[in-house]
Structures are given as C-alpha cells and as structure tokens.
Amino acid sequence: MRLLLTSDTHVPSRAKRLPGGLLTAVGEVDVVIHAGDWTDEATLDVLESRSRRLIAVYGNNDGPALRRRLPEVARAELGGLRFAVVHETGPAAGRERRCAALYPDADVLVFGHSHIPWDSTAPGGLRLLNPGSPTDRRRQPHHTYLTLTAEDGALRDVVLHRLPV
After folding, report:
1. Which residues contact 24 (CB under 8 A, 6 or more apart)?
2. Could you tell me which residue ranges the Calcineurin-like phosphoesterase domain spans (predicted)?
3. Which domain holds residue 119?
C-alpha cells in the first residue's frame, strides 16, 4: 500500500495552490494523509477529489468550517500497521517518549505543525513521521512531502521528496 504524507499546506496564505508535483504524486498512491493546517476548505476539497482515500485532521490554524469536517486525531489501519494522525506534538525535546505515552496503540504517528521533516522511533517502537510542508518551508531548505509503503506490518521505502522553492 503506497502512502503520501503531507501537512501544513496553508493555502492560500502561503501559496495560491498546492504544488503540481504534489498533486501528481497524490494520483500515484493508495492513501493520502494530511496532518493539518489546511487554512481553507478548497484545498481539502481538492485532495478529497483527487485521492483514492484521504485521512486528515485539522490543525491550529484551521477555522470552524474545517474543524466541523475533520477530527483532531485520526486513526486507521493500513498495510497491517496502526496509524495515528495529529497536527501538533509539542516541543522536539522529549517528543518520542511523550508521543509513545499518548499513542500507545499506534505503530506510526504522522504529525505536522513544525514544518520540519522528522523521522524517528520512540522507545517501544512507535515511528514518528513529519512530512514538512509542500508550501511553507520556513527555515528549511526545501518544500517537502513524504511517500512510503506500508505492507505486512512494516514500513518500507520512506522517501522525503523535495519540491521546487
């Protein structure tokens, strides 16, 4: 099962639209996961229409309309793994232990908020993944998103993709 992870799209405040490279990749995967901070419903509508399956949450910059449509935390079993999705996980220091305690029933936690790509494993095995942002790189050198394969209870081919600035 091929997955695409994205977050912090911030359309239209940080970009007028989602990057073409991201939208092309959306059509090539089985599941798209968005970890919040959409800022507009139109972007949610675009990803819903282009994704075979969309799993998504709202973020701290998402208003009432998006919060009515999306949960704060989403959970799904994909490729034999239990995924949890949330926007914010707090400071980087202590993140693995804190998230392992908050999501003991998850194998993979997808999060956003920082716009900083992240891939680590907590004691006990929880994998934490942040795809960065495809539209607002902040202090990062590139706009980014992640793809991976979830199959037979394992993650493979985890790739951080760079988009043109």
Report:
1. none
2. 1-152
3. 2-163
